[in-house]
Amino acid sequence: MNTFLTLFTKEFREAWRSLKFVWMPLLFIVLGIMDPLTNYFMEDILGAVGNLPEGFMLTMPELHPIDVLSASTSQFQSIGLVVLVATIASAISRERQNGMATLLYVRPISFTALFMSKWAVASLLGIVSGVAGYAGSLYYTTLLYGSVEYGAFMKMLGTYCIWILFVTAVTLACSAMFNTAISMTLAILLLPFGLMIDSIIGSFWSLSPWKLSAYGVQFISGGTSEYYTATVALTLALMISAVLLGILFSKRNAATAKI
Amino acid sequence: MEELANINWGLIAPLIVVQAILMIVALTDLVRIHATNGPKWVWALVIIFANLVGPVIYFIVGRKSS
């Protein structure tokens, strides 16, 4: 536990000094408030730059809070997720490549504590960013489109946090297994690209971790998907196996650290 | 100019402020950092002119972590 705390402090300090805890939440806030705003001003935007012919009539759909929140979620899931994955995919592999790992590995540290400290900081970063983004989105949604039930919003936020934990676990496991380039490619293929695949042909199955955030957004409309509990269980199971894989491979690949 | 006055600035102000903070944070970091991947002045241009994307790209690939 003591080793974990020391490593956690070290990881946190590194993330703080490289300003990750500043710019990532700011990015998510911008992503979160962009959608409610552009949808609200859509008519003006089209009128100003749309180059529409004279007399063109356009009926704007009446947007409900759930539409806006799901639009924000899809922003987080595309741009936000790629940025998050790209930032943390090098966490373990870069230390091996630039030789910093040897300074750590010569000490009698447990690889469980090493991996867990990295996972904790990466998850904290993702969760802080996600919460900040949703807070911005919620602010504008209630301001412009109508109120959102507090309990339902909290459930959605909790679901999104589980998804973030899964994302960071998978990304760090990739980082433990391969070098930076391969791990980044693999993590981006698995997570943001996997989401895209799931949204294209995902109607054939209903249980997959990629559907978790979509099931979370459904809370806002008052309903719960019948697959919600099973999906959460599956995601948690996959997350734990990713963590175990990550610990195993960070131990096995310790020998590949450059000196 | 009249159109500019009609815009509800109170609504858009937070967006502009957040983007400005992001840009300022990136620029101060660029000034203080020892070396970047690629020339510094190019990064300054990227941060200033590529809105939102610029600072983020700088933080991901521009910072050289020794």
Distance between the termini of chain A: 28 Å
Give the class of chain B from helix and strand content and strand pairing.
Answer: mainly alpha
* End-to-end distance of chain B: 50 Å
Q: Sheet bearing the most strands of chain A, described?
A: none
Residue share in β-strands of chain A? under 5%
Biggest interface, and residues per chain?
A-B, 21 and 19 residues
Rg result of chain A: 21 Å
Helix content of chain A: over 70%
Order of helices and strands of chain A: HHHHHHHHHHHH
Number of helices in the DSSP assignment of chain B:
4
Number of domains of chain B: 1
Describe the structure.
The complex is a heterodimer of chains A (259) and B (66). Chain A has helices spanning 2-17, 20-40, 42-49, 65-88, 93-97, 100-105, 111-144, 150-177, 180-190, 192-201, 212-217, 228-252. With 259 residues, chain A is an all-alpha fold. Chain A has one domain. Chain A is elongated and about 75 Å long. Chain B has one domain. Chain B has helices spanning 2-6, 9-32, 40-49, 53-62. The chains are: A mainly alpha (259), B mainly alpha (66). The A-B interface holds A 18-20, 22-23, 26-27, 29-30, 33-34, 37, 40, 83, 86-87, 94, 98, 136, 143-144 and B 11-12, 14-15, 18-19, 21-22, 25-26, 29, 52, 55-56, 59-60, 63, 65-66.
In short:
Chain A is built from 12 helices and no strands.
Key terms:
heterodimer, A: 259 residues, mainly alpha, B: 66 residues, 4 helices, 74% helix, 0% strand
Give me the secondary-structure topology.
The complex is a heterodimer of chains A (259) and B (66).
Chain A: H1 2-17, H2 20-40, H3 42-49, H4 65-88, H5 93-97, H6 100-105, H7 111-144, H8 150-177, H9 180-190, H10 192-201, H11 212-217, H12 228-252
Helix pairs in contact in A: 1-7, 2-4, 2-7, 4-7, 7-8, 7-12, 8-9, 8-12, 9-10
Chain B: H1 2-6, H2 9-32, H3 40-49, H4 53-62
